[in-house]
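Worked problem 6 (solution included).
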Amino acid sequence: MSSQEPISEPEGKRLEPECFHLISREEFETLNRKQTELSYEKGEHLFKQGAFAPHVLFIQTGLVKVYLQTGVRKHMNLWIARRGDFLAFSTLFGTENYPYSAVALKDSELLMIDKESLKGLIRTNPEFALRITSKNYGTEQHLLNIVTNLSYKQMRGKLASSLLYLSSGELQKEDVFTHLSRQDIAEFASISVENVVRFLKEFEQEGIVNLEGKDIKITDRQKLSTISNTG
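Solution. The predicted structure is:
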């Protein structure tokens, strides 16, 4: 195979096909020399908000909670990152410190990628740059939704919006709720744990969810969407 042909299956690495399979064997080998594979156990921090950020992280397997430290023992959960997602991608563009914290929700394997090597790849491979940028668009849209929730919605609407997010798209395959405590859900919705428990019971009585231990099954997504939209 020519070194300029796209690689179809990088040996020894479980890189996300839609992204890293757009690079040549030569590009992959250059990047591979400047990356480290690490394993994290459930509950282990990958990095803390404000710490120096020498690397971008790429999730090979696992599930990661991303959050902001907003005060003493006060957190605002932002999103759930999964296989194929990048963390601290914004640090490629001048930010020297991690803008948020990240903790493993279950055992996870990640690549720590040298920032300068990744920037070089983005400059020289436009197709890869476009794909990697598009992956971050969804995160931006989600953050705008968080602002809307905080600004305009009542508590039931905030919780409904968080439940919809945590059970949407690719997260549906991850059984996310089994990895989250009620405190975690409260920090996604920006309401108290007591209100999470109370509104979940109300949603169950209204036939919107089924509660099975920690797990939450959405049984009427349309009703939940209505509550989310009306606030």
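Discussion: The radius of gyration is 19 Å.
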